[in-house]
Give the backbone structure.
Amino acid sequence: MHDWLLSNKVFGSYIRSYREGKGVPTKVKAISLVALWATIGSSVVFAVSILVVRVILIMIAIGVTIHIVRLPTLRKIDLSIASATS
């Protein structure tokens, strides 16, 4: 599974760039944050009724958001170089 993900046409270059500390493209960061907040937000509003669990979910989302935002931003040219070298 590990080798398949790294050699995948769609995800491979993104995963390699992230693991090598080069960064993540802005578009991927934005899509990740929208998906994160859409799923956590809908869970908090529609699926969870316990206040403590809602707070924990929001805290997790905030932590993941901080992590994603603080990742280095990979420019498109850097991503094409990473794809070409692998």
Notes: The chain has a mean pLDDT of 90. Residues 1-24+73-86 form one domain. The chain has two domains: 1-24+73-86, 26-70. The CA atoms of residues 23 and 65 lie 15 Å apart.
